[in-house]
Amino acid sequence: MDGDSLTQRTKKRNLATLIVMGSTLVTRILGFLKFAVIAQYFGGSGVADVLNAVFTIPNNLRKLMAEGALTTAFIPSLSKHVVRSEREEAVRITRQVISVQYIVLIPFIIVSIVAASSLVQVFVDFNDPQKLELAAHLYRWFIPYLLLISVAAIIMAVLNTHERFLVSALSPLLFSIAVIAAIIFLAPTWGVYSMVIGVLLGGVGQVIIQYPLFHRLGYRIWPYFDFHHPEFHVVLKRYFPALLTSSIFVVNQQIAIFLATKLVDGSVSALSYAVVFFQLPFGIFSATVNTVFYPELAKYGQSKQYEAMGDSLKRGLHLLMIFLVPSAFLMILLSKEIIGVALMRGQFTVEATIMTATTLSAYSLGMFFIAAYNFIQRYFYAKGHFRIPLISALIACTIDVLLSLLLIRTPLGVAGLAYANSIAFFLAFMILMVLVMRERTMRIERDTYILMGKILFSILVGYGVYLGITHFIGNTWWLDGYGFMINVGLLILQGGIPALIILIMYILLEVDMIKDFIRRKRRR
Fold first, then answer.
1. Per residue, what are the HEC states of 33-94?
2. Is the separation of the CB atoms in 313 and 379 below 8 Å?
3. Distance (Å, rounded) from C-alpha 2 to C-alpha 223?
4. pTM to 2 decimals?
5. Residue whose C-alpha is closest to residue 127's, from 253, 268, 251, 274
6. How far is it, in rounded angstroms, from Cα 342 to Cα 38?
7. Which of 357, 368, 427, 364 is nearest to 394 (CA)?
C-alpha cells in the first residue's frame, strides 16, 4: 500500500471514527438516562434485582446469535464480496445468515415462553420464591427481544461493512428512548412490566431505523433456505469456534449475575448499574474502534495485506489507549460522585450508591485491558485464527470465576466480581499481546512509548487540577443535599474540568488522532 493511499485511508478512518464516536456518545448518554430512570422508579431493591438480572439473559444471548459470534464469522465473508463488488453474493449470504437466526431463535423463543419457570432458574437463583415467580413472568416477555436485536445486529454489520456508520450507530438511540418513555408514562400503572413494553418497542425501532438504507443497498431480511453456497459453509466454519468463545463469555457473565443473586439485596443492581456507567466511556470508544476497524481488518485479511493489518491494529490500540486510560482514571477518582449525582434519589440509598461506586471503580481498573483484548480478538478473527481467541477466552473466564468465588467471600462483596473480571482480562490481554508480537505484523516501537508518555503526563496535569478543585469543594458534597442541578454543576467542575485539561494537553502535545482532527479543521 503506497503512502498516499495509506494517508487517505487513515483520514477516512479517522472521520468514520469521529462519526461513530459522536453517535455512540449520544446513545450511551441515553442509555445512562435509561438506567437512571430505572433506578429512580425501582431503586436498588429486590424487584430491581429481578428486573436487571432477567434482562441480562436476552442481552447476553444476543452475543451468540447477533453482534458477537455470528457477526464475527459473517463480516469477513461479506467483506470479501463487497470488496469484489459481488453484490448478488453479498445479498445471498446475508439472507442465509438471517435465515439461520429465524431457524434457531423462533423455536427457542417459543420453548422459552412455555418453559419459562424452569429455564429462568438456570440463569438466576433468587432465594425468595416471589422473586423467582416474577423472574419467570418477565423472562417470557423479554425473550422475544432476542430475535429483534439479532436481526438488527446483522443489518448493522452490513451497513458497517459498506462504511455507512451513522444510521447503525444511532439505532440504539431509539431503544433507549422507548424504554425511558415507557417507564416514565407506564410505570405508575404497569410497574416493572412498563420496561417490557419499552424493550419490545425499542427492539422493533432498531430494525425499522436501519432497514431503509439496508433495503436501498439491495439487501432483504426475507429468509433464503438454500444453504449449499460454499461461502455460507465458510461462515459456519468460522461461526462455531466464535460461538464457543462468545458462549464462554456469556456463561461467565451469567455466573457473575448468579453469584450476585446469592449476596445481599441490591448486589445484582449494583453490578448492573456499575456496568452501565463503565459502559459509558468504554462503550463509546471500544465499540467505535471495533465498528470502524474490524471491517477494515477483515478486508486486509481477505487480501492478505498483513502489514496493513498490523498498522490498523496498532492505530486501534493507540486510540483505545488515548481515550480509555484517562476515562478509567477519572471513573476511579469520581465513582461515588458520579453514582451519587446520577442515581441517589427516590428508592436509591446512600448504601446502594457506595456499593455501586465501589464496583464501578473495580471494573474501571480493567477498562483499557478489556477493550484491547476484545480488539485483538478481532484481529485474529480477521486472519482466520479462531482457536487463539477461544483458548484465551477459556483462560480468562476460568481465572475470572475462580477469583470471583474467592473475592465475594471477602468484605469486597459484589465488588469482588468486578476485581476478578479486571484481573482476568489483564492477564488475557497480555497473552494475546505476546502472540501478536511473535507474528511480527505489529511492533511496539518508539511512537507507542512516546504516546504512553504523553498520555501519562496529560493525566498527571489533569490530576493536579482535580486536587486543586477538590481542596476547595471537598469530596463529600454529593451527600450534602444541594439539589440535582447544583450537584451536576459540582460534578462538571470536579470531573469535567480535569477531563478538559487532559484534552487540552493532548492538543498541545499533538497526540495522534487529535492532531489529525485539528489539522483537518484548519484546512477547512
1. HHHHHHHHHHCCCHHHHHHHHHHHHHHHHHHHHCCCHHHHHHHHHHHHHHHCCCHHHHHHHH
2. yes
3. 42
4. 0.75
5. 268
6. 11
7. 427
Question: What would the mean pLDDT of 68-95 be, rounded to a whole number?
Answer: 84
How many other CB atoms sit within 10 Å of the CB of residue 114? 11
**Residue 84: what are its φ and ψ, rounded to 5°?**
-85, 5
Identify the helix (H) or strand (E) that includes residue 507: helix 497-508
| CB 235, CB 97: distance < 8 Å | yes
Report whether 478 contacts 344 (CB < 8 A). Answer: yes
SS3 breakdown of the chain: % helix, strand, coil, rounded to 5?
85, 0, 15
Angular region, 264: left φ>0, alpha ψ -120 to 50, beta rest: beta
pLDDT in tens, 9-61: 556 666 667 777 777 778 778 877 887 787 778 765 577 778 878 888 888 78
Across the range 114-133, mean pLDDT stands at: 84
Q: How far apart are CA 66 and CA 63, in angstroms?
A: 5
Query: What distance lies between CA 95 and its chain's CA centroid?
Result: 26
Decide if 147 contacts 105 (C-beta within 8 A): yes
Which triple of cell numbers denotes residue 193? 412490566
Domain boundaries, the chain: 3-444, 447-524
Give whichever of 69-73, 80-84, 321-325, 482-486 has the largest mean pLDDT: 321-325
Per-residue HEC secondary structure of 216-235 comes to: HCCCCCCCCCCCCCHHHHHH
Q: Are 381 and 300 in contact (CB under 8 A)?
A: no
